[in-house]
Amino acid sequence: MTMLEKIIKQLEKEVRKLFHKESSGHDIYHLKRTLTLALNIQRKEGGDKLVIAVAAFLHDIHRIIQKETGKYCSPKKSLPRVRELLDKVKLSEEQKKKILHCIEFHEEYDFSKKGKTVNDLETLIIQDADNLDAIGAVGIARAFSFGGAYKLPMWIPEKPLKRRIYDATKHDPSEVHHFHNKLFRLRDNMNTKAGKEIANGRHKFMKEYLKRFFKEWEGKL
Fold it and tell me: Are the CB atoms for 75 and 106 separated by under 8 Å?
């Protein structure tokens, strides 16, 4: 077992406890998929493998805090909780700082008000991996899981599909609105060549899915 595998195994014991009741699509399986995607990108693009892997596995602790409090929690506010987990495994102080940096800035988008502010490869890879799991077949399933968890409707045809400056602190009127406000914009938000290649197929699948969704919604199929 490599050092990285040992660290992830140690962290998983704690992470499972935190995420065992998570049902909004930000569960431990999302963390594992994001980890796998991040490492696949890292093999092609480079970057610190250990930092990328651990950051990918711990990037959504703020979702647990949000569920506990019932209020929006930014990734930055979750860093003390993440630090507690990092202190339980064998990592250097420099590695911990880099991991915390990746997590703090992993939810940056070109189409948000603030835009992207960082350009280190490790954080850019975490952004791509997390966003890739938000699109495609799994992304569709996660979107509707999120809607169910937060009592958001699938679709409200009376409300126009207006794109706006993305604001993570506010929910879209419906999950179909979320497709247009965020998910369909993620392909062009990718940072790495490897991320863009994967995103193309997932983006196309979502477009095809939504076309059929609208037809079935009208009872045409």
Answer: yes
